[in-house]
Amino acid sequence: MSLHTVDTHAPVDPLHLMLLIGGEHRESERRIEVRNPARLDDVVGSIPDATTAEVDDAIAAAAAAAPAWGATSAAERIALFAAIADAIESQADDIATLEVRENGSARYIAAREVLGAASIWREVADYLAEILTPKDYPSGDGFVRVERRPFGVVGCIVPWNAPLILTANKIAPALAAGNAIVLKPSPFSPLGASRIAEIAASILPPGVVNIVNGGGEAGAAIVAHREIRKLSFTGGGVTAQHIMRQAADTLTAVHFELGGNDPAIVLDDVDVRATVDRIVDSAFRRSGQVCFAVKRVYVPRALAAEFRDELVARVDAITVGDPLEPGVTMGPMNNQGQLERIRGLLERLEGSGRDVRVLGSRVSPETWGDGYFIQPAVVLDAQQGDEIVATEQFGPILPIVVYDDLEQAISWANDTEFGLCSSVWSPNRERAIQVADRIEAGMTIINSHLFTRVGMKEIPFGGWKQSGIGWEASPYGIEEYLQFHSLDVQSMP
Ligand code: NAD
Predict the structure, then answer these.
(1) Alpha-carbon distance 486 to 484, whole Å?
(2) Which residue out of 113, 198, 291, 421 is catalytically annotated?
(3) Distance from the Cα of residue 201 to its chain's centroid
(4) pLDDT below 50 — which residues of the chain?
(5) Using one digit for the tens of pLDDT, what is the confidence trace for 126-177?
(6) Structure confidence at residue 456 (pLDDT)
(7) N or C, which end of the chain has less CB nearby within 10 Å?
(8) 166 CB under 6 A from ligand 1?
(9) 155: Cβ below 6 Å to ligand 1?
(10) Euclidean distance between the first and final Cα of the chain, in Å?
(11) Residue nearest to atom 8 of ligand 1 (CA)
């Protein structure tokens, strides 16, 4: 598949998604329309808006399918997962186009995301058998056996910003562990996520994968249900707080992947141009709508002038427009709420006297009003307490904070309730690692940010503090969906 295929704007019939419950497709009482955020007259499809009763049916179907699926061997699951990966890859072009049209991401990003979402199903094969093999220990004249068991039914709730990879990252490990799942994608980007899950459902036994599209009501109905033994959620902190309060009623185990306010600490020995190049890519990708994008940059005073110049030049080269147009490097915001939030941040910044530069160029400006477009911006003299530094902007505005003392930069980097990812930039690896070791976050990348081996074997992905509870990817990502059952075999006295 080409990473740079340009699609035409030829009209495509809107997709009509249905609920998937116990292997059967079903109409819902209510529906939600999905529009292209770059061309609001382009209706990409429509989804059910599942009611509580429909969610209850999906959970009942999952509960009925869970025991048989939980009894399959690692080898059986791995063989089925390989078929799922192949099937996703065979539809990669189509799914990537869907992602561009419903999400607004650039085409090459969507294309890579599909391939990532396919490979996750194969990666679990590397460690699943070992995790599921019981461990025996001699004990007196008997033995102790420690084994892993699935929870039964897992509820999976995902956001809109990278829906393919976030869905696969959740449902593949949950299913690998032997659980049946009920998935609820975000109504802002539900079609690609549903396609990934539909492919899995078509290959796995009926009822193992159930899909209930919808909004907050459907999500809340999943959380409230007694039969959900584990709830895995990726999204915003405020929603997570609602979920945690609701999950208290049933003492349901929660797994949260939440927001971040990732710092990038630049040391004073970097090659400024190369560093800016990578930081810009890591901050403005998907219009900044990435949980572990660079969200604030700490730059030493000695390099500040050069860094600002390079940053302005590099961000100014971004071209904003409909990602289906040739030459576009940054698409629209995904939804109106996002657009308004970012406009609000910008308005307050412009009134604050800070040096704010709105940059980039508009491709096809005549169609600008047809979508949720905004140009990228930088704040060249941000201060630690500023709103743009203190909150997760989740959009294309990057603040630069100049520091005089590295100790101060480290303390500013940690001065947040978030702790998702972070980066340190220096050619001196030892020095960079010393700084990295002091950062309070689930991950620190040296000389990169966003481009990691997440989803591959070794790296668990997750957040400290209010950025999350639990881990995704790697063997730890599967272990989240397993509980222990210990057997202590003793003789009769
Ligand atoms: P959101 O919290 O608004 O929505 C996430 C999902 O929760 C959606 O499917 C939504 O319909 C559902 N939902 C809404 N109300 C609910 C309720 N009461 N009960 C149950 N479910 C409910 O988040 P969003 O705007 O879709 O995503 C953006 C946020 O997600 C950002 O903060 C971003 O940083 C975070 N995020 C984190 C990661 C990570 O891995 N840490 C990855 C991507 C996004």
Answers:
(1) 6
(2) 291
(3) 21
(4) 1-8
(5) 899 999 999 999 999 999 999 999 999 999 999 999 999 999 999 999 999 9
(6) 61
(7) C
(8) yes
(9) no
(10) 67
(11) 186
